[in-house]
Specification:
single chain, mainly alpha, Rossmann fold, two-stranded parallel ribbon, globular
Length: 176
């Protein structure tokens, strides 16, 4: 398992036509937990809209997510697209809106977002979406990790909220 935030991993079974786009919370939790490499399970390049970059930069240069963004070449900061009115109508934050606008305008791009309202918006527009939990489950299903439980514990320690019910249901899906 890579220990560096910039270590590449083998991408298997990637059906993504366009690079996925990530929101702030997955970047924050994965960086804090030392698990940023999990993003490379879905693509060798991950789009970070400027609005998401700005959310992370205000946290300060010593923040793990800010350091990850500054030092990880495959996290590509990209101009925030114009947010379509139908996404604006959901009243999401600027980061969530930018992620969904990117996925909406780049067919085949998956939105990596944890925010429930953002995930519901993605579903309403039939946009591919997965969260941090889904990245861990993908890693387990593809054999990149031996224990999803261990990584989910690391993410909880890093501040990610997962109810016991959601945690146990997710672990049952991967046989843990």
């Amino acid at each position: 398992m890579p220990s560096s935030s910039t270590s590449p991993i083998l991408i298997e079974n990637s059906n993504v036509a366009e690079p996925p786009v990530v929101n702030a919370s997955p970047l924050i939790f994965l960086s804090r937990a030392g698990l940023i490499y999990l993003l490379q399970l879905v693509s060798s390049e991950i789009i970070v809209p400027e609005a998401v970059h700005a959310e992370i930069e205000v946290r300060g240069h010593s923040d793990p997510a800010a350091q990850t963004l500054a030092n990880t070449s495959w996290l590509v900061v990209t101009q925030t697209p114009t947010v379509p009115p139908q996404i604006q109508a959901w009243g999401l934050g600027s980061g969530e809106s930018a992620v969904l606008a990117w996925a909406h305008t780049h067919e085949g791009s998956e939105a990596i977002i944890d925010d429930l309202a953002g995930r519901r918006c993605a579903a309403a527009f039939n946009l591919p979406v997965r969260g941090t939990l889904g990245l861990v489950l993908t890693a387990k299903q593809r054999g990149h990790i031996s224990s999803a439980r261990q990584l989910l514990h690391q993410l909880r320690q890093a501040g990610m909220y997962l109810s016991d019910r959601v945690l146990n249901e997710a672990l049952a899906k991967v046989g843990e």
